[in-house]
Amino acid sequence: MCGRFGTPFTPSELATALEAEWRCPEPELPRFNIAPTQHAPVLLRHHGARVLDVFRWGLIPYWAKDGSIGNKLINARAETVVEKPAYRSAFARRRCLVPAGGFFEWQRAGKVKVPHWIHPAGGGPLTFAGLWETWRPTPDAEPVQSFTILTTTPSGDVASLHDRMPVIVAPADREGWLDPETPAAELAALLRPAPDGLLRAFAVSTAVNRPAYDGPDLITPAVV
Fold first, then answer.
1. 137: cis peptide before it, omega within 30°?
2. Which residues form the catalytic set?
C-alpha cells in the first residue's frame, strides 16, 4: 500500500515540471508528510489542458451515504480496479495523477518498524496513477473532491521494504492516463511496477509516524 507520501516542491516548481496551471488557489507547498484524509495536489485534464487542483486523500464514491468510507479507500489495487464498485466508474471516466517527490514505507527491524523514504534516483516529481470523485453529503451541499492512489506489485527497488507500491506513470505516459478516450487495454498496460533502478531508498526519522509533523528533515537520512 501507499500510506504516506511527500510533495517537496513549490507550487510553481510543480506547475512547471508538469506543464500545468493551478485552477485553485496555490496550496501550501512543499509538503513532506501527507497522510490519509489530508489534502494534496492532483493533476487533471480539463478541456484538453493539464490543470493542478487540491483534493482530499481517500476516495469517496459518488454514491456513498457516509463520507467516512473514504478513510478506507486511500489505495486501489490495480489488479481489481476495473471490477470493484467503488472504483470502476472513476477508472473509466475520472483518472488523475498524484504528484510526489517520493513515498514512505516501513521495514520491520526486530521489534520496531523503520520508515524509509523512497524517491526517484534522478530527482524531480513522480506521478502516481490516481482516480478521483466528487461527492455531496446532501444534494445541496458543497462538493467534496477526493482521490485514491493505485498500487501494484513492487519493483526490485521496493520489494525488500513492502509487497506493494504506487503505480508510477512515466512522463511519456501521463497524457494517455489522463485522456478519457484512451482504450482500456492501453490503460491496463500502464498498471505495472516501476522499472528497476528508478528509485532509491534510505531510512528516515520515526517522526514521520506523526501525521501532524511535516518538516524537511523527514526526507533526509536518519542519524544512526
1. no
2. 2, 105
